[in-house]
């Protein structure tokens, strides 16, 4: 779904159809690319597929845009005269499409920025650092900047160890930084802000000073009782972003498990059990979703340990963190229910 452009069974071109959130095979005709799904609809590949083979999302044949709704969100890419940069860019776009897919499932797919002052639109910048111009991954005013070197596994792993992190992935960067964007869209200047402050803390405290204090002194010893990570302790904005990222980790992974029909039967009285009664996205029974997440991560970590690997999910969810996840789910439930009635939610496009 995120990188395949050729079916290895039939050798036909495949692509992702954002409108139906599904993959399809295509046959190239004089009129366009015919979807072989019975719809007889015509499409064309994104320009970034035709020129660089770094995208597999399709566009309606009569759509005036040269780029798919994913690539429209990327405003700056690395210098493609450097061959390594094409590889970095391709990996960044794959991770971005995986992130965007779950925003589709949650009805919060972002729209592109229309101007520098448009904080409710979103833009991605993938920059290669130099000695004179270092690049910090981060978010500001609807612009998510990623250091393109993060697409290099060795660089990313070395950074993970240096920073004392137990988890660092390209996809994780997209999910974390998007948390800052969605705070501005979904929480700031809304009725949710008061409850946010009760749960996460007052975001009006000095951000720069809070980060300086964190890097000088680290997290408090009992941080696991209230936070998902040490970095989450630095400031309420970072607590939200870290928790938001983990919510997306959870929902996306469970959504995959749901669609491949995964279940787990408990073998002893207190053993974990994985069962679905509905899709995890927009789940009415969020407590079942949390129970399923415990079962799935328990199984994933146990399997990894049996292979001599690190835990796939090296985190502990305290009761306080669970309440933060419940808050995020509640916000998104309201977004889905009232999107058409609220002008702010209408700013989020349906891809």
Automatic annotation (TrEMBL):
Record-annotated Zinc-ribbon domain positions: 2-81
Gene3D superfamilies according to UniProt: 3.40.390.70
Database matches in InterPro entries: UCP012641, Zinc-ribbon_6_bact
Pfam families: Peptidase_Mx, Zn_ribbon_DZR_6
Name assigned to this protein: Zinc-ribbon domain-containing protein
Organism of this sequence: Acinetobacter marinus
Lineage: Bacteria, Pseudomonadati, Pseudomonadota, Gammaproteobacteria, Moraxellales
């Amino acid at each position: 779904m995120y990188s395949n452009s050729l079916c290895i069974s039939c050798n036909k071109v495949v692509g992702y159809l954002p409108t139906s959130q599904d993959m399809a095979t295509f046959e190239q005709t004089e009129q366009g690319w015919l979807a072989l799904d019975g719809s007889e609809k015509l499409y064309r590949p994104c320009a970034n597929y035709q020129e660089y083979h770094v995208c597999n999302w399709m566009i309606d044949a009569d759509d005036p845009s040269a780029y798919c709704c994913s690539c429209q969100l990327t405003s700056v890419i690395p210098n493609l005269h450097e061959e390594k940069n094409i590889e970095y860019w391709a990996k960044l776009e794959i991770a971005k499409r995986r992130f965007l897919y779950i925003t589709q499932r949650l009805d919060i797919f972002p729209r592109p920025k229309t101007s520098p002052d448009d904080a409710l639109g979103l833009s991605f910048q993938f920059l290669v650092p130099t000695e004179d111009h270092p690049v910090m991954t981060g978010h500001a005013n609807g612009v998510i900047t990623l250091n393109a070197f993060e697409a290099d596994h060795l660089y990313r792993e070395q950074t993970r160890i240096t920073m004392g992190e137990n988890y660092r992935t390209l996809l994780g960067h997209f999910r974390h930084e998007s948390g800052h964007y969605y705070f501005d869209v979904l929480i700031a200047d809304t009725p949710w802000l008061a409850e946010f402050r009760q749960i996460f803390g007052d975001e009006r405290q000095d951000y720069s000073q809070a980060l300086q204090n964190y890097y000088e002194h680290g997290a408090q010893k009992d941080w696991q009782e209230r936070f998902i990570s040490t970095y989450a302790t630095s400031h309420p904005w970072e607590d939200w972003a870290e928790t938001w990222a983990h919510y997306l980790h959870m929902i996306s992974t469970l959504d995959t498990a749901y669609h491949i029909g995964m279940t787990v039967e408990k073998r002893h009285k207190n053993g974990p059990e994985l069962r679905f009664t509905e899709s995890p996205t927009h789940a009415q029974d969020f407590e079942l979703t949390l129970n399923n997440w415990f079962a799935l991560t328990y199984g994933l970590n146990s399997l990894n340990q049996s292979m001599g690997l690190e835990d796939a999910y090296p985190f502990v969810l305290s009761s306080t963190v669970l309440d933060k996840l419940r808050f995020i789910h509640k916000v998104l439930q309201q977004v889905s229910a009232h999107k058409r009635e609220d002008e702010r939610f209408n700013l989020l496009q349906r891809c």
